[in-house]
Design goal:
This protein has seven helices and five strands, in the order αβββααααββαα. It is of the alpha+beta class. Strand 2 and strand 3 form a beta hairpin.
Length: 209
């Protein structure tokens, strides 16, 4: 059955599809097929709640309607152009943001997948400064301010005890992905983190024009 024919594809689910359709990165929902929940496909393990076959534009969910985050997760797999080794990073880390945008009726100016493709460290810092209206020196100072220590930071001795510093062995791309993932994780509880992510989407839209 086509997704557009599925009874539960309305309301929040249609909004989620709209968020990830930004920039035409998803096909028309009538071109996407959804398998019935039963029987489960052979590829589905006991802990598998959703599957996506991108080349066939085919989705399966163990529970239908699926939890909104699971729906967003599998739709993210439908989007082409992501690095194979980062496929689950995109789907897992961006799915919560997509649901938040959909619930708030926000169609982003750039597709959320661009957050992990077209953003620099300087852009993340600029977005945080705008959101918090404070001139953080760098990501280390920001994360020290909120009391979070992402893996790309370390604590080093300072005159006042310790301070945060970026680990030199981490490439910028990985730092960006980790920093944005932390912002997304906090966005549901902190309006300033959410605002920073929205600022980043605006910046990316301007950059890729």
């Amino acid at each position: 059955m086509s997704l557009c024919e599925v009874e539960w594809f309305k309301g929040l689910y249609r909004k989620i599809y709209g968020v990830l359709s930004a920039e035409g990165m998803l096909p028309d929902p009538c071109e996407v097929k959804v398998l019935p929940a039963e029987p489960a496909p052979p590829e589905a393990r006991s802990g598998t709640y959703g599957l996506c076959w991108r080349d066939r534009r085919l989705l399966w969910f163990r529970v239908q309607p699926p939890p909104p985050v699971d729906f967003a997760h599998e739709l993210l797999h439908l989007i082409e152009g992501k690095e194979l080794e980062l496929e689950e990073v995109y789907a897992y880390n961006l799915s919560h943001l997509v649901v938040m945008l959909a619930r708030d009726n926000i169609i982003p100016p750039a597709n959320p997948v661009r957050l992990f493709k077209d953003v620099t460290t300087d852009m993340v810092v600029d977005a945080i400064r705008k959101a918090y209206n404070y001139q953080f020196k760098d990501l280390a100072e920001f994360f020290e301010f909120i009391g979070v220590v992402p893996p790309f930071l370390k604590m080093v001795p300072s005159i006042n005890g310790v301070r945060f510093a970026v680990r030199k062995e981490y490439p910028e791309r990985l730092i960006v992905i980790m920093a944005i993932s932390e912002l997304i994780a906090g966005a549901e509880f902190d309006k300033y983190m959410y605002r920073a992510v929205l600022e980043l989407l605006k910046m990316v839209a301007e950059r890729v024009k």
